[in-house]
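re: ur question from earlier - yeah i can do the single chain one, its not a big deal. heres the input i used so u can compare w yours
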Amino acid sequence: MGGSPSSEGPIFMIMGIGKRGSFVEVLMKVHIDEIPAEGLVVDLAEDGGRLFKDETEIRFKEKILSRLVLNRLDLNITVSGNIRFRIFLQCSRCLKDFPLTVDKDFDLEYRPVSEISKGGESQLSADELDILYYHNGAIDLDETLMGQVAEAIPLKPLCSEMCRGLCPHCGKNLNEGECSYATGPLDPRLVRLKDLLNKKDIPST
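and the output i got, formated as tokens:
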């Protein structure tokens, strides 16, 4: 773990619990053999735009901050942590951008992917379906952060539970005031928009 940091990926800081002041620069993967008996603390400040570069609907204005505590029991790894971030999403009703701030704790369990191949996914119990699996003896912390961010983002983002959405006739944002379009035929350009908004408001079964 020592030596010069690689230029092939982002850098984070690791501190072994109980080893005050002992910091080492490493890549965004933790090899399980390098987790000491007393556990490992990982502090991260990551660029969300890098992690979600293909997700144009998610816009990060600040870095993702996280502290992870990793402990090892044989080949099983537990990860307890906290993640904080602020993103901008588009409201599914009024289509206006709004900020979402997340600050949450989480607990994860990792096992070697070889455990799946022993019995096959079809034989996994309901509890085991919540377990994550690592490859090649290392946990990818990019994937850990991305999973926690994805879980925190609502399927149907709303700027407010009281959001009134858009007028189906003229497209005015009804949160900004009443629409002057009282009656009349529906603008054909807004028919598809109305259908999309109605579909988004239908709860999934």
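The chain has two domains: 12-152, 164-205. not sure if urs matches, ping me
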